[in-house]
């Protein structure tokens, strides 16, 4: 593979990860625009599906089940975002010409702003509220996803040697 082909491949990879990340952010923010009653119905459906698992674990309080489902949704959707962000950053680094990789703090700040904007959006949606604790849960999910993606990348690199 020539240098030009490698650069084209790196650009295509960066574009794919950028599109995936933007689609996921759109999904997250779109979900935040769902009004409170509809959001509660969604959580209730998940709780009813998961109820046997919760009860097997000794959790019988429906409000606690709902809390776990809601906070788990925050964590998991941001874990996916963390994976996508880490993969995008890796693809941009392989391009070696990206503003974001020359200034990684800027990249991190942009990604960290996603949950902040997410919670701010909820302030304007009937029946929803923005919670600072949700931002912390989101950031924990984001960091976990990015760390997992980094670890998988390291393992792949070691196996390739």
TrEMBL record:
Keywords associated with the record: Membrane, Transmembrane, Transmembrane helix
Keyword Transferase annotated: no
Residue ranges occupied by any VanZ-like domain in the UniProt entry: 18-152
Entry's transmembrane regions: 15-34, 75-92, 104-124, 136-153
UniProt keyword Signal present: no
Protein name: VanZ family protein
High-level lineage: Bacteria, Bacillati, Actinomycetota, Coriobacteriia, Coriobacteriales
